[in-house]
Design goal:
Blueprint lengths: L18 H11 L6 E5 L5 H7 L4 E6 L2 H13 L6 E5 L2 H5 L5 E7 L7 H11 E11 L2 H13 L5 E5 L2 E5 L4 E5 L3 E7 L2
Parallel strand pairs: 1-2, 1-4, 2-3, 4-5
Antiparallel strand pairs: 5-9, 6-9, 7-8
Length: 189
């Protein structure tokens, strides 16, 4: 896993997704060297890059031009630029032209009212045995994602992750918590 500090970041773009979360997303995705992965809401490209190190191809999508620029810098820095296509567009518009997806990853924080349609489209583009993963910090996003997967006859699984990092002080170690995040995932049969 790439350390969080090894990513180029900006105050204008969220991310990267924390190292431990990226690790769990990779594990839950069961990504292989034959997979086409889409990353909707790629931000700084943390998940995009980790997936590109294992998958055949990754399509990273973000409507924020600053996010696309930052992801482009990060994929080049980490040597996966040949395996990543970047699309500067909203998830709904971008998904309309993509077919035969093995793994769809949807960042939950910026999806808002579009989440239902993004999930609907992403699920419809998944190949048999395709996997969908939604990362979410908002309770509403978690509930909406679970409900949508159930409507599509996908049995959702959810884990809530709370990471704390130790900070060395003169007299001991103080644990500082990161924001909790849910990883919701399911598989098409």
């Amino acid at each position: 896993m790439i350390k969080d500090s090894d990513f180029i970041t900006s105050k204008d773009v969220p991310g990267p997704t924390k190292e431990e979360i990226r690790c769990l997303v990779l594990c839950k995705s069961q990504v292989s060297s034959d997979d086409l992965v889409i990353d909707i809401g790629c931000g700084t490209g943390g998940i995009t890059i980790e997936m590109a190190k294992k998958a055949k191809k990754v399509i990273a999508i973000d409507k924020n031009p600053k996010a696309i620029k930052l992801t482009k810098q990060n994929i080049k820095k980490h040597g996966v630029d040949e395996k990543v296509d970047l699309i500067e567009n909203d998830g709904i518009s971008a998904l309309k032209s993509i077919e035969n997806i093995d793994i769809a990853i949807v960042g939950g924080s910026g999806s808002g009212t579009d989440l239902d349609e993004i999930l609907e489209l992403a699920i419809s583009k998944l190949k048999p045995n395709g996997r969908i993963i939604i990362t979410a910090i908002l309770i509403d996003t978690k509930l909406d994602a679970i409900e949508k997967l159930k409507q599509k006859n996908i049995s959702p699984e959810i884990i809530e992750v709370n990471i704390s990092r130790g900070h060395i002080l003169q007299r001991g170690v103080m644990m500082k918590a990161e924001n909790p995040i849910a990883i919701i995932h399911g598989k098409i049969f």
